[in-house]
Design a protein that fits this description.
This is Acyl-CoA-binding protein. The protein is mainly α. The chain has four helices and no strands. The chain is globular and about 35 Å long.
């Protein structure tokens, strides 16, 4: 996928997640979080209110440390598409 098409598909997947009002399972949320942070090159520390949540987020980020930004976008898109495919 070329960068422009990848960026557009990523933005659409993010919008789809943001528009969804039902809760996501915790494992899916952590993957979405990690892929999103990696895809957007946002390496700030997790800012959750609970230390345990921050620990899970930090672990999720650690797991994608060797993933490129484009790979993270692709993984995010696939995760979103698969999640909604099996939810509807």
């Amino acid at each position: 996928m070329c960068n422009e098409a990848l960026d557009k598909a990523f933005e659409e997947a993010v919008a789809r997640v943001n528009a969804y009002t039902d809760p996501f399972p915790a494992d899916v949320l952590l993957k979405l979080y990690a892929y999103y942070k990696k895809a957007t090159n946002d390496y700030g520390k997790p800012r959750g209110k609970k230390p345990i949540i921050n620990a899970f987020k930090t672990n999720a980020l650690f797991q994608v440390r060797n993933v490129s930004e484009d790979e993270a976008k692709e993984a995010y898109i696939i995760l979103v598409n698969n999640y909604f495919l099996y939810r509807e």
